[in-house]
Amino acid sequence: MKSRFTWNEQKRTANLEKHRLDFADAGMVLNSQFRLDVESIRNHEQRTQSFAYVFDRLAVLTVVHLPREQHHIISFRTASEEEREVYHEWLENDYTA
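User: That's the sequence. What structure does it adopt?
Assistant: Structure tokens below.
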């Protein structure tokens, strides 16, 4: 079964205005060869933060995993300075193709 992505359209519009990144472009992060995924639990939900370069900047895509291989996009934003440092350290020391 193929994974599906959903999002709240109002949140997509707000995210686009605030961060200048569109949920519709999330595939660019997910298809990146240099993607770093960090799993977490928040509000009793399993989440993944995926880090990759999009439009010449390091972006963070946050997704909640739902039943039936559905994934709900929560946010899509530019990485913070601390997140960029962690990503570049991972890329230099732990990344394997």
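The radius of gyration is 13 Å.
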